[in-house]
Amino acid sequence: MTLTLALVQILNGLQFGLILFLIAAGLTIVFGVMDFINLAHGVQYMVGAYLAAAFTALTGSFVLALALALPSALIFGLVLELLVFRHLYERDHLSHVLATFGVIIFLNQAVKLVFGAAPLSVPVPELLSGTVTLAPGMLYPVYRLVVIGAGLAVALLLYLTVNHTRLGMLVRAGASNAPMVSALGVNIRLLFTVVFGVGAMLAGFAGAMVAPILSVEPGMGDNVLILAFVVIVIGGIGSIRGAFVAALLIGLVDTLGRFFAPTLLRALLDPASASQTGRAIAPMLIYILMAAVLFFRPTGLFPAKH
Length: 306
Prior knowledge:
Helix content: over 70%
Strand content: under 5%
Strand order of the largest sheet: 1-2
Mean pLDDT: 86
Largest sheet: 2 strands, antiparallel
Radius of gyration: 20 Å
Number of helices: 12
């Protein structure tokens, strides 16, 4: 193990954490502002990946495909909100869970019918392919650096929008007291629709960005949805800052745990047993982290102020 290899794993952890943030940011806004449990949020991440794959095959350009996938993901989220979700806002959380779980099953089967069950691959754009030297002997893929940069740019944009714009003020006020905001003349239903659409677009953006480095396949959003909820629990419901910090923590803990656990266990076990035990322990680390955070801060690291 070398320092260079450890630094590469840290960058991989940051990249994974920022992808989680893109997914969890939309989910925490919808949950925190609208008190709506959207289990179908992971499906919107999958839809973003499929949109990127389809538009890349159609246009031959990933950049153009990304430009088309973003508004398409936004429109897809708005259509889902208009047709399905807005009819559930007045119902209890169990209704939210059952209805959105039905949407997951429906859309997973729909993409199989349209694109087939076989995984799709999206080539890394030629301009962003290859590696860059970050330090002597340390090479890192250019595209993964672009993913890190895009995640940081979105985080900054969200922070500025939520904390320093009129729209952000209305969103925060709507989260605190929606009836009062509505009584002041604000179309709260339209505000919630916009919030939902932006959340869907963020999930779609995350899916589109990972399409060149992961397989695009049905059900790809199911596992990442669980991690997105863990991010929200650790960060605090409705908190963009909390989602950002928690996503980075989870990304680093998961990636470094998978890398270091087998290595450290070799001091106690034979190499084969250490590798097997390390792979089994590593996925548990994020849930141990969640339990530790909830023990000391039951409302998360940075709960939203209402």
